[in-house]
Amino acid sequence: MLIQDVINAIEEIAPLPYAEDFDNVGLLIGDKTEKITGVLVCLDTLEEVVDEAIEKNCNLIVSFHPIIFSGLKKITGKNYVERVVLKAIKNNISIYSPHTALDNSFVGVNAKICDVLGLKNKKVLIPQKSTIKKLITFIPTNSADKLREALFNVGGGSIGNYDHCSFNIQGKGSFKGNEASNPVIGEKGITHFEEETQIGITFPKHLESKILNTLFANHPYEEVAYEVTTLENTNQHIGIGMIGELETAQNPIEFLKFVKERMQTGCVRHSKLIDKKIKKVAVLGGSGAFAIPNAVMAGADIYITGDVKYHDFYKAENKIIIADIGHYETEQFTKNLLVEYLTKKFTNFAVVLSVCNTNPVKYL
After folding, report:
1. Which of 111, 136, 231, 325 could join 132 via S-S bond, C-beta 3.0 to 4.6 A?
2. CA-to-CA distance for 229 and 148, rounded, in angstroms?
3. Pairing relation of β-strands 302-306 and 278-287?
4. 336-341 long-range contacts, Cβ below 8 Å, gap at least 24?
5. Buried (b) or exposed (e) across 298-316, using 16+ Cβ within 10 A?
6. Helix (H, G, I), strand (E, B) or coil at 177
């Protein structure tokens, strides 16, 4: 097994095209063609984490946060980032980070928070835009079924909770090849008319290269006529944050105590409590103050996130309770999610949960 095999598995649930533009995701250090000895999963890659990987014979660290976020002009070991990079390279350890690609996954960071809190009926809080594309192509009618099925098999024709979706129009196409052409149907230099089917399918944007390769491999024409456009439709399964519901509504104080215990946090900072039971809960792992208006608009009774500043709490305006439980605390169970997923995928090498607590924030 190669490091690339683990990367492929992670990107099945967290395709990199859905990472935020500001982010630095993917393989940050190492050679994807190396044989794998073991995987260590962590939230942050610190020197002690690299030491742990060495001790446990893991040559791949899957770190939720990227250790290299902005450009490095020198690697001299003057700070913790450079020291981690140096130690990883010296010990032939690769580092991979999915970060916001996993934030935007329907089964990622925020889904895990919902699971820990027992929330049902999960929905994406802020759907990501421009994630759905559409392919239009024209093909001889007697070849249409084969192409359509091939496109379905690689993920084409999927939108929301539906798959095998397409729109088909019958018509007549025409073409005339020049002297350099080699037409499969008709003769060069003579205008040919052919009964054709126009096939239209949607697909998620991360599958574009696979869709086009399948199109070219299954289309009989020498020159394939096609167009790809980006749709404005909302994708129900890609985006940041989530909103779900409690099985039974709870008193605000009781629920906050429940959150503190389940999310293993040393402190819960919250806005003014509202005299209303908690039923609808919005969550966003990491720094989520920017999504307070979205949580309000979605009708959440409480919004759980991290890194909320003083003035952000005013945005509650007695419409919602804002609860800041800490950046690390909202994301800590992401490690468990990845370990559980990779352990099911791979049984011929160790997938290890790091025992290092990398939270830089301490509580009295």
Report:
1. 231
2. 18
3. parallel
4. 336/112, 337/107, 337/108, 337/109, 337/111, 337/112, 338/10, 338/41, 338/62, 338/64, 339/41, 341/9, 341/13
5. bebbbbbbbebeeebbebb
6. coil
The radius of gyration of the chain from alpha carbons, rounded to an integer in Å, stands at 25
Cβ neighbours of residue 72 closer than 8 Å, sequence gap 6 or more: 81, 82, 85
Mean pLDDT calculated for residue range 287-307: 98
Gap between the Cα atoms of 358 and 360, Å rounded: 6
In the DSSP assignment, the letter for residue 363 is: -
3-state secondary structure 53-83: HHHCCCCEEEECCCCCCCCCCCCCCCCHHHH
* pLDDT tens digit sequence for 26-52: 999 999 999 999 999 999 999 999 999
pTM, rounded to two decimals: 0.93
At residue 179, the 3 state secondary structure works out as coil
Q: What is the pLDDT of residue 70?
A: 87
Token reading at 39: 């995987």
Sort 260 into a burial class: Cβ within 10 Å, 0-12 / 13-18 / 19+: middle
Cα dihedral across residues 256, 260, 263, 269: positive or negative: positive
Cα gap 343→22, rounded to integer Å:
30
pLDDT per residue as tens digits for the range 195-207: 999 999 999 999 9
Q: What share of the chain is helix, strand, coil (3-state, %, to 5)?
A: 35, 30, 40
At residue 279 the predicted structure's pLDDT band, cuts being 50, 70 and 90, is very high
Q: Using CB atoms within 10 Å of the CB of residue 153, give its burial: 0 to 12 exposed, 13 to 18 middle, 19+ buried.
A: exposed
**Taking Cα atoms as reference points, which of 64, 66, 57 lies closest to residue 42?**
64
Helices (runs of H) and strands (runs of E) counted in the chain: 11, 15
Flag whether pLDDT at 71 surpasses 90. no
pLDDT at residue number 283: 98
Reported as a single tens digit per residue, the pLDDT across 152-182 is 999 999 887 889 999 999 999 999 999 999 9
